[in-house]
Amino acid sequence: MYLVKLALRPWRQAWMSQVISVIAVALLLFSTGFVFWLDQALKPVVSRLQHEQILTAYLSTELSQAAEAKTLDSIRTSLGASADRDLKVVNAEDFLKKLKVHYPELTRELQDLGEESLSIVPRYVSIAGVFSPSELGAAMDSIKAIPGVESVETTQERAKHSLSAFETVRWVARTVAVGLVLSLFTGLLHLSRMNSQLHRDVAGLLKNWGASAWTLRLPGVFSGWIVGAMGGLSAGMLFLLGGEGLATQLRALAPALAAVPIVSPGLSLALVVGGMAAGVLAGFFGEQSYQRD
Amino acid sequence: MVSFGLEGGAVISLQGVSKWYQGQTKVLDHVQLELKKGDFLYVIGGSGAGKSTLLSLLATEELPSSGKISLFGYDLATVSPSTLRAIRQSLGYVPQNIRLIPDLTVFENVAISVSLAGSRVLKKESRARILELLDVLGLAGKKDKAASSLSGGEAQRVAVVRALARSPEVLIADEPTGSQDRDFTWTLMDLFMRSNVAATTVVVATHDREIVRRVRKPSALLKAGRMSVEDGLCTL
Q1: Which of A30, A78, A143, B174 has the most other CB atoms within 10 Å of its CB?
Q2: Candidates A11, A209, A214, partner chain B, best to mutate (most B CBs within 10 A)
Q3: Burial status of residue A255 (CB atoms within 10 A of its CB: 0-12, 13-18, 19 or more)
Q4: Is the ipTM here above 0.90?
Q5: CA atoms within a 13 Å half-sphere pointing along the CA-CB vector of B43
Q6: b/e string for A93-117 if b means 16 or more Cβ within 10 A?
Q7: Which fold has domain B10-229?
Q8: Is the CB of residue A235 less than 8 Å from the CB of residue A275?
């Protein structure tokens, strides 16, 4: 109890340093929490990009209505057990409607072409679903071989660029997280060394009264714990209050990021516990040589 | 509290102890001393004679530059850290520069020292002893005051309580009456005598010849770092 009281000495003698340290710890923990969350948040996005593909089979423009139905049946059959995948047929009329919606400036030209436009626009079958890399290859080969199918495309190539970008962001986030944790610990260690100087007279007395090396470290450990806990609590509160906003902002950046989850309250708790642990460790290792026997 | 059980053996032994600091002449010069359990010794001498250095060595605050100091039969230069801690737990030391912890109250200053000498949780009897000692030394009303608010004389008396409340096997007091009026001087000496009667080895450094004359006990004179016997017992 008395040692806890001694741990508050830095708050009396060097309160400004303690306050600045708490703010620094809070910001570092918040930043660490953010990059950690970013890494975790991109995980489902990357997974979705890796496995969810859209396979597009372009049908021949000369295909008759009867032949088209037969081709579609063959495509369904070729998908076999995976036939539950979302299969959508886009005929020439649907395609033109979409074209007019996305490119209204083409409306006039399409009207000028009249019925002729129907013979030049593609008809295609879009199959969206989860494909493993081997499944995707096999599906492409079998669909390509079906009469009436002109060509087959997938979103795999397009996804590759996004995947690579997201993977890079995740690696950068992890590296930054490690750097931030090291900065946090170094900052707390320096603070503990400074606080240890403030405890110097007390340490000398305790040592002469027969205190163990562990007991001598206790005021420093408590001091570190206080700063770490206060910084952790502040960072945790920031996340609790602003976590949802962060997720919303990120989701708005790109459609692929729609799968970003909201910030879990567990992360706030982890920041508090992490702050305390860093403070205790820094207080323990910040002990000075004069405190030893 | 660790009892070293040295019945009849030397509790304190100094063999050829010298102490000098960098760039200075010898503060202590080849001091020989042996005290048994229950002995009482005055260390007398003028200012700068080396009294405080000698007591600081006995209190294990520093090591001698040459020679050997043994407490409870253990050579302080080679003792293990755990034994050194046990030795320190058996000492009661009143330093000349009082060194109270300003963050704590008077009672807490004493209690923390007592708790380090025994069980971590302050026992009822220890608490009662602290309060009794504070009362005897006129500090009962100040027990909850911050140590930083005390006068020099009051702080010195708290330092004495802090040492005595540990029920030490060896009590080392450096000018414990330096800032006291006559009444408290004799009260302090009475407490030291009572502790000595209870078999505590007591070493008191003083320059007050009246104390030495009225409370008759063996004394050793320190002059320019050299020790000589004034009144028996000290083994040269």
Answers
A1: B174
A2: A209
A3: exposed
A4: no
A5: 31
A6: eebbeeeeeeeeeeeeeeeeeeeeb
A7: Rossmann fold (3.40.50)
A8: yes
How many Cβ pairs within 8 Å bridge chains A and B? 56
Helices (H), chain B: 51-58, 81-89, 106-117, 124-136, 152-164, 182-197, 209-214
Given a contact cutoff of 8 angstroms between Cβ atoms, the answer to whether B109 and B100 are in contact is yes
Nearest residue of chain A to residue B120 (CA atoms) = A1
Q: Which two tokens stand for residue B53?
A: 């250095």
Subunit contact B103:A5, Cβ cutoff 8 A: yes
| pLDDT tens-digit series, residues A168-193 | 999 999 999 999 999 999 999 999 99
B96, B101, B174: best to mutate for the A interface, most A CBs within 10 A: B101
Tokens of B197: 């009667």
The angle, 0 to 180 degrees and rounded to 10, between the axes of the packed helices B106-117 and B124-136 is 130
Domains of chain B, by residue range, sit at 10-229
Mind listing the pLDDT tens digit for each residue in A140-172? 888 888 888 888 888 877 788 888 888 899 999
